[in-house]
Amino acid sequence: MAPVVARLVSESKPRVVPGKLLVKEFWFEVPLDHSKPDAKTVRLFARSAVKHEKPVVESSPAEVIQRPFLVFLQGGPGFGTPAPQDSPLSKHMLDRGYELLMLDQRGTGFSCPVSANTLEIVGGPREQADYLKHFRADTLVRDSEAVRLCLTKDYPPEKKKWSTFGQSFGGLMTLTYLSLAPEGLRECFITGGLAALDKGPEEVYQSTYRKVMERNSAYYKKYPEDIATVKWLADKIRDMGGDTGIPLPAGGFLTVQRLMTLGLSLGMHGGIDTVHNVILRMKGELDQFGVFTRFTLNTLEQDSWDIAPIYSLLHEPCWCYGPGVAGNWAAERVGKSLDEFQWLRKDWSGPASLGDKPLCFSGEMIYPFLFETCAELIKLKETAQILAEYDAWEPLYDIEQLGKNEVPVYAASYNDMYVDIDNARVTATRIKGIKVFETNVLFHNALRARAEDVIPQLLALRDDTID
């Protein structure tokens, strides 16, 4: 089948934004299902950016320089791209001669965003699940290729290929890109995204739970008083919320299980302090007033689960690397088998059963109870169950193709709670020609928190300046 080319719906005039960037905005149309190019379409949004330099003499349109594109592949799944002026890539990459493209993946940002009410338009749970099956990395790569072919149709051959920069899930997407459409790629940068190529959700979570336990140990070592405080809060939440939990402002419920998902932050720079500050505030409010303030309840509710529902709906499916692999709530099944996560079990008797042991926070795990306690996800419970049981996924990776890869790949691999380092090392051995900067002093969000420690290292790999 011939590759689909996106239809350019609109392109804005360049505008100067803070940071001395010249930014354009684009809207594209692509097929919902790339195997049916003449059927239903969805809209994609993107912004491009170059450095704004006011010339002494204005150029004519014919003299406009065509810079090769660097497209940012965002993490998640489920999060839109930042504005170019808010991205560290602008500071580090635009001076290197690229035009930066921030393309919102379908279902995120401005690109046909997924929410309970937009999915309701699609139909019932079965129709919603069938729709969302077209929102995984294989389709995102086809979207990207369609946009590339559209934007570069008038470019000279040497500038038609583009570079990619994939963070986290964007790294997984890069591996899919290298598998399915390497002809569109000049070079690829990956940060925190060297995922296992042939391990399903259960195997992945067996690895990541070990790292989550390490991060819990680091948390309680830094804040040992929180061992007692977290368990005390858990008891209070059980007393105050009964069987359903404490009502939250937007319609969700605070339960002990929901509280323990605060650990999602533990793998980030500053994450330990983030979790402690929430725990400290909660205890302070109960000590002073016996209730939680709206501010605290709002903080507990404003998390990824409700804001980006696609993150919860498609998280386990993003580890389903091909046909015959289903999620089936792997994170819950693996967690229940571990004594450190007894709170996942229905027969758990409460914090007192732990003795002196702490309550362990979870990490980047999606559980069925989220679809009973999160206001947005409650509406999508049946859809989530259909997706959890589905096992006829298209292949995400071509290991044979990766083994003969000719696209330069430069990766940063971290002391990572979300993408297991041992799995990342194995993946690196299966990609021909890859160069990897590995460190145990940076965490998963280093691209945002420590960009100056990451991007120059990747560029050094590209420029062969290590030796």
- Overall geometric form: globular
Q: In terms of quaternary structure, what is this? A: single chain
Low-confidence stretches: none
Assigned CATH architecture of the largest domain: 3-Layer(aba) Sandwich
Whole-angstrom Rg:
23 Å
User: What is CATH's topology name of the largest domain?
Assistant: Rossmann fold
- By CATH reckoning, the class of the largest domain would read Alpha Beta
Q: Summarize the biggest pleated sheet.
A: 10 strands, mixed
Structural class: alpha/beta
Number of domains: 2
Per DSSP E runs of 2 or more residues, the count of β-strands stands at: 12
Tell me the CATH superfamily of the largest domain. Alpha/Beta hydrolase fold, catalytic domain
Share in β-strands: 5-15%
Taking the alpha carbons of the first and last residues, their distance comes to: 44 Å
Give average pLDDT, whole number: 95
What helical percentage do the residues reach?
25-40%
- Count the helices. How many? 20
